[in-house]
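Memo to structure team: turn this sequence into structure tokens by end of day. - J.P.
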Amino acid sequence: MGAGDLGSNPGSPIFFKKLIIYKGNDKNLSSYIKMTKTKKVGSTGRFGARYGRTIKQRVLTIEKKQKAPQKCPYCHKPTAKRISFGVYICKKCNSKFTGKAYSIK
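Reply from structure team:
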């Protein structure tokens, strides 16, 4: 009998891991495990309680504008993506062009 066996040392406590069994459908299970998304602050929820509501709202409007699909000036499809500060690339026609910092126009 080894040190980890039940009968090796009767005076020592035996620790068991808790087994939590969740009975329910998958929809409830996923909401039970995952964190909920933020409603008002969106992607600026990463800042937590810092910086205040007004500043977070300004950042949110800018981030929504820059992450939205932009319209390519050459092929006129909404497939242009921002790759750096003021530089965009179209996934369809593979053209690289410049624009404003957060949007093309």
